Amino acid sequence: MFNYFANPTRFLRLTSKLQPIAMVVTLITMGAGLYYSLFQSPPDYQQSETVRMMYVHVPAAWMAMFCYVALAASSAVVLIWRHMVADIVAKSTAPIGACFTFLALATGSLWGKPMWGTWWVWDARLTSVLILFFLYLGYMVLYNAFDEPTRGARAAAILAIVGVINVPIIKFSVDWWNTLHQPASVVKMDGPAIHSSMLTPLLLMAVGYTAFYFWVLFIRSRAELSAYKVRALRIRQAEG
Amino acid sequence: MAEFLSMGGYGSFICSAFGLSALVLIGILIQSQRFLKTSEAELNSLQPEDTSDGVKA
Amino acid sequence: MALKRKHRRLSFIALCLLVLGAAAALILTAFEDNIVFFHNPTEITEKFAKNELKPTQRLRVGGLIEKGSVSKTADGVTNRFKVTDLNKSIVVEFRGILPDLFREGQGIVAEGRYNNAVFTATEVLAKHDETYMPPEVAEALKKSGQWKPVAKEK
Predict the structure, then answer these.
(1) Do A12 and B55 count as a contact with CB atoms less than 8 A apart?
(2) Are A116 and C20 inside 8 Å of each other by CB?
(3) Nearest to A142 by CA among A162, A167, A169
(4) CB-nearest partner of B10 from A13, A114, A227
(5) Closest by Cβ to C36, choosing from A161, A165, A177
């Protein structure tokens, strides 16, 4: 399967075909999700209207971790099999993941101020997500820090793989240590602790955010592939 | 409408959270589309005759 | 030959991750005391009894606000309440703005110093649980007696 998609031309054809599908799914689920988030869902018994911030905060946080796992997995493929397509997926994922992580932190801060009474605390959950953000930034800086692109790609891939240790720490930080952040509400052993009227907008937005990731990933991958070809042509011209 | 916007006094926090999310997501989408346009244009300027590899939009 | 090299790289990366994971686990366990955001009243009273914590140290206490314990002190502005982990409780005094979620039975984290059996807080933060539901549902659950209070504060 790897080898099938490792062919750049095939990958290009596939992404071009899937891009409009991802776009349509994003627009529909996010549109419905926004409607449910702002108009069709009830306030919370404890947090009243502020619970609506959950519908942009939680999907962003989920995608921050999802993107990192995608980044680390494709980085592993880069290091082990040296596939150019995996490199393109990794390089394209990093800025999207960084955006999601930034949003998780920023919306969390906006939610924390009215509910907890503070914009920020250094508890295990918040700190580990901040580290995730720096890992994304570090990946992007390291990637571009070398004159030779393949060396940058490998150095950055190593960083991405090492940093994957942080993902389970983020996920379980709220269970392992006392934190100000509450434990997981949806992905937990005894089923979600969210009423269905609030789970609907949350899941709609989560699907929307996931589709959005793929939509932007496909656009960026096509762009990176073209940039790669430009580089290759330039080198050939310089040599020939 | 005013009551909807105030959202029990938390309107400014909620609007900022949704507004910022929209801004960042639309921002990366537009930046990605521009990146695609410029890199494809550059590629086409280097190999104008070759359209067989499906690169042209 | 090429395949062998790929296998070697794969096992090398897997081994590195294993070692890194073990190292991370060791470090995080060693620094557990610094990673926890707050201590519960039981821990704090025990540590003060054993002299592991001193009245000059800044620390955080977390727990639920004991029912019927919220009051004002003689000066009329300082809030006084008890924080409990359903085992031990600690008296907290705080002058300042309480978070919106502050109410009896609510989880809170207070930062300050513990001296002469009174925790003088400089900051009080609210900690809420992971359940979300509309007010009507919460009301109905309480009425039918199916309400499960979150007494899980460690």
Answers:
(1) yes
(2) no
(3) A162
(4) A114
(5) A177
* pTM (predicted TM-score): 0.92
Residue bearing tokens 């949806």: A186
Domain ranges (residues) in chain C: 2-33, 36-143
- Put simply, the answer to whether A184 touches C123 (Cβ < 8 Å) is no
> To the nearest whole angstrom, how far is the Cα of A226 from the nearest Cα of chain B?
6
Which residue of B lies nearest to A216 if distances are taken between CA atoms?
B29
CA nearest A123 in C: which residue? C37
Instruction: Read off the tokens for C111.
Output: 């930062």
Could you give the ipTM of this predicted complex?
A: 0.92
Element of type H or E holding C83: strand C79-84
Coil vs helix vs strand at C119: strand
> Tens place of pLDDT for every residue, chain A, 240 residues?
566 667 888 999 999 999 999 999 999 999 999 999 999 999 999 898 999 999 999 999 999 999 999 999 999 999 999 899 999 999 999 999 999 999 999 999 999 999 999 999 999 999 999 999 999 999 999 999 998 888 999 999 999 999 999 999 999 999 999 999 999 998 887 888 899 999 999 999 999 999 999 999 999 999 999 999 999 898 888 887
State the smallest CA–CA distance between residue B44 and chain A in angstroms.
9
Select the CATH number that applies to the domain covering C36-143 from these four: 2.60.120.10, 2.40.50.140, 4.10.320.10, 3.40.50.10320.
2.40.50.140
Question: With contact defined as beta carbons under 8 Å apart, do A165 and A206 qualify?
Answer: no
CA distance C74 to chain A (A): 26
- A79 close to C90: Cβ distance less than 8 angstroms: no
